[in-house]
Please model this.
Amino acid sequence: TSFSPLETAIHYKITSRQWGYVSELEDTGLALIAGDGKTGLEGYEDQDHIGSEHHVRQVAALMERQIREHDSPKVHKCDPKVGGGGDRLVVDGYHPFIIDHLLTDCGGLRIDLNKSVEKVSIEDPAAADIQLDDKRYWNASKQNLERPKTLQISCRDGSVYNCQYAICTVSLGVLKSRSKHSAISWEPKLSSMKQECIDSLGMGTHNKVVMRFKAEDVFWPPATPQLLSPDPRFHFLNLNAYGKSGLMLCHAWPPHADQWRAKSDEKVVGEAIGVLRGMFAAEYRRKKCPKPVESVVTRWDTDPFSMGSYSYLKPGSSWNHLQILSLPHPQVGEARVFFAGEAASMKGWQCVDGAFESGIRAAMAVAQCYGMKEPEEDTKPKEKKAPAK
Model:
């Protein structure tokens, strides 16, 4: 049987958006292809155009232009104080502008490591009569600084933290209780609405292999950022083109990323080298079959403290689930635990900037509980100073 025009449009749109997601096509919800207020089929009304000779020429011209533009990419460093729109490739990790900032610029911030939270309990009967629409729900009183610390965080090593408010940033995979080593019990239990969101959203797998070769052993085009092969197991990001000498990063998506559990790191690295070697066999032999100096294989789907890479929309889920997931706990009574993370962000879902944005939002919610107001942006034009003589 053949697809109807509508089915053809849906199939074309989904497959065009499938690239780079952490779910298999059959487990990807239709809500993914439709933005806010859109059907997801805009631009595909003329079915006769797709696959026509004119369409092929258009696509071919676009690909040729992209090849010319990306053959020798211009790498611009992003000013961390200014930022900028669009995607950014973080090649030096998050230590310089997040971890080091927390360690050095936050006034002696206390950071406890190797703590696995087992239970979050709230014992505050005085707040039981507060409802969602009550102004006391969000508080706004500096008197909360003196309130009893009736929120208890219990860890698996026996340590207990008593506090007034908390921010939960664990991954969706941990909220799903996929591992007994990281599952969290809640007292009172999470609302049925929030639990439904946790169950409805998917947590997918996006694993990577990072290999470092000697600079003189690079056997692939050194300045081409993306290298694609007919072999679907790996997509290659050439970090050598971004100033990281001899580094090759290999992306793996479902279903292939889910098949590493029975394989050793050496086996996975060998498969990645095999695909890359097949793409550039002559140069590989000319370089005398080099091996990587070191390599790293990620296994986010089996890490008990992530249990997946990032979230995705399963069939039946919607963007509303992300909004509900970000609501504080409890949802009846006074808010005591606030949620952050990529799965709780509408602005940067699936991305690091979404996790960051939601963290700022949750922190401001806690600050407002103590009567602090969100700082207003300075919209007044700055006076220009006369140049120094």
